[in-house]
Amino acid sequence: MTNTLNKVRSFIDSDIFTVLMFLMALGVIILGVEIPGSIFFGFIIAIIVIVSPDVVSTFVPFFLLYAFAIRNKNSFDEYMGYLWCLPLVVFAILFHIIAYRKVFTAKRGELFIPICATSVVCILGGLGIATPQEYFTGTNIIYSLALGFFILFVYFIFGGVIGQGKNGEKPIDERLSKVFVVLTLFLFCAVIQYYAAHWEEFIMDPDILPFQWRNNACTLLMIAMPFCFYMSTKKFPYIITVLLSYFTIIMTGSRGGLLFGGIELVALIIYFAVVDKKHRKILLSAAGVIAVAGLVISPKLLYVMRYTLERFTSQGENAIRIGLWKRSVTDFLSNPIFGRGLGYMGNRDIHKSSLGTLCWYHSSIPQVIGSFGVAGILAYGYQMFCRLRMFWKRRSLFSRTIFWSFVGLELMSLVNPGVFAPPFLVILTVLFIFAENEPIEEK
Length: 443
Hints:
The chain has 22 helices and no strands. By secondary structure, it is mainly alpha-helical.
């Protein structure tokens, strides 16, 4: 039995399993069965949680699941039809906790206190101005907990099961980085599939095809991009995934992705050209050739990108974000200490949020100011200081790669919910745990 179990675990951690998951995820988007596919992939993750003590084994199916689940809009009611699957998830988690309890090591990480502070602020947001009817809505309670104490729980639990000797024999830096390479390749294929499915529309008038999941796709790509660079330091051909990443960002039509993804790309080229001396010449040469080629084809490229570029100056779309940012100041002044709270829906006259979601300010800074007031500014400011201090003490290339991933998410969060969307915050929190496990550079 033990021998069979070990073979199953080895298979789950193999490249064959990764390819299989990738192909199955492609099948999901080609057939257009994202919601049943989400449940199926969730079932696979539950099985992995049961048979393997290594949580990193779940990363490939989890990221693929999330990458195609973002295509579902206004699907709350459809997902509720699968609530009968919840007992399996609960059982898998409880079984894992009990069966692999010896793997867990309780510890209080460097970010425990700052996460506690932001968790308390999430609960206190709106105190003094929100009515009981506003405060105790399902949306407010769920998000207050999901962005606060749930993240603290994730940080504590994952911090106890991620570490040396707990995540297989393969080097964890390459293992984690390859997960993000796979994610990048899948999102590239997902966007290509969308264009293939709407090819007649595209070929009649070549322009970016708009779709609602563009910002989420770009957020994932910007989280993943530094890891593609990191793998290129091991084997330079991985640099191709960087090109595919930014090409995909362009084809999504996301303004935030185009602008901040471009900033991230340039910053990463400069950084890795400095630290990766082995591939410096070829990296800079390749970047130069691509830049020149881009200039040569820029007239045609700009024509194809009309949809994205025109939206940069569109008064209608920009008015929504600017209106929300201005409203965050008004909301702050209405209750300076604790803000309006996460569940405040008074700004839906500017932007009508989807069912079961927050009425976001669509930028992390106004979100803190408007939702949490002075308490939020202090708590989130302290958390940012602790995060930066953690990275300053850890200067390995892998920890700095995680830092750049964090920067990518924060950049995208300036124009998108980003760090105030629970899945992205969970991803970021887990990445911080990997960074904490990197050795501290002695002075």
